[in-house]
């Protein structure tokens, strides 16, 4: 079968993981200004800035195309600096039946986990999206180190 998958990328950062967690989870509305090469737009549709149950959307660049992710925040663990986002709309659901993104930060490490179920065997692994996250995290780190 092979329809379910999980991709994980952990990046060592020089600015401490809690700083990246703060930008991504507390000052999220600033991200389009911090990483404009990746992220074009962030909007809160329901709830407050990064609270469980909030619904947010992101417009980002992937392979030269503008993509949309609409997500509901399923869980937040402040101690582990982890947030779980369930994709509920946008381009990813054209290829995947389900898609969940988990971001976490610990000491010098920031981790992105993509868990998904492909619609068909021919659906590609979301490696390009994982690359977008890596570029974004490195750009956030550069911003914080200025």
Automatic annotation (TrEMBL):
<dbReference type="GO" id="GO:0006952">
    <property type="term" value="P:defense response"/>
</dbReference>
<protein>
    <submittedName>
        <fullName>Sn-1 protein</fullName>
    </submittedName>
</protein>
<dbReference type="InterPro" id="IPR000916">
    <property type="entry name" value="Bet_v_I/MLP"/>
</dbReference>
<dbReference type="InterPro" id="IPR023393">
    <property type="entry name" value="START-like_dom_sf"/>
</dbReference>
<feature type="domain" description="Bet v I/Major latex protein">
    <location>
        <begin position="2"/>
        <end position="146"/>
    </location>
</feature>
<dbReference type="Pfam" id="PF00407">
    <property type="entry name" value="Bet_v_1"/>
</dbReference>
<dbReference type="InterPro" id="IPR051761">
    <property type="entry name" value="MLP-like_ligand-binding"/>
</dbReference>
